[in-house]
Amino acid sequence: MEKLDFKNKKIFVIGGYGLIGNAVANLLSYNGAEVFILEQNKLKVNNFNFCKFKITDQLSSIEKNLEKIFKTHGVPHGMINCSYPKNKLWSKSSFKNIKPSGFNENIDLHLKSYTWIAKLFAEKMKLKKIKGKIVQLTSIYGILGQDLEVYKNTRMDENIIYPLIKGGISSFTKQLASYFGKHQISINNLCPGGVLENRKNKKKQENNFLNNYKKKVPFKRLAKNEEIAKVAVFLLSNYSDYITGQDIIVDGGWSII
Fold this sequence. Notes:
Strand order of the largest sheet: 3-2-1-4-5-6-7
CATH class: Alpha Beta
Largest sheet: 7 strands, parallel
Order of helices and strands: EHEEHEHEHEHHE
């Protein structure tokens, strides 16, 4: 019987200090992976290998930065992108408030960086003949429309850029998976539903939003970040060798009703 095996496996976690990214990094490390966190700034307490990486740079700068990282640390066996690049206009992205500048820049920051980075990793894995794993953190809202009921009696609104970005990433993943499949490189989307913010010193979700959301979920709760991380580790492992181009939904049943 084959065991979950990360021995001598190098995994890059982009956005590894975030809510989901840090949980993924910790669980990968627990299972024996050599974890590299790619972030703009290094935390004082950091238990992982660190690579300075600015995801909000121009694509040409991102490419040059990754080339330096590959040259120094090698091409990894797996990569997961958990980053969440956005600008100051992100909160003004409802149908009523959105402006062309916010629309264009946020697509540039998020959609273009995710897709270009995945392409670069896949090409490097192919070049080095690595049967690699790439996981893109998307969302149920890359597949489904936003349920406006969950925003009732809150200060929150729908965000029209978010599903466009996450849906675009999802579609591009399928194209990548089709193209690189013959090289045994698997590329999948991890699509969480709502995830509870449980970190200290971080702004928590509004109670009305939490209550509205829970009513829509068969499990009657939001996901824990560790629950999303478990699926991410599965997708980065030898246990997912015959899975590619898929939207893996982890939403407590939100999407079934």
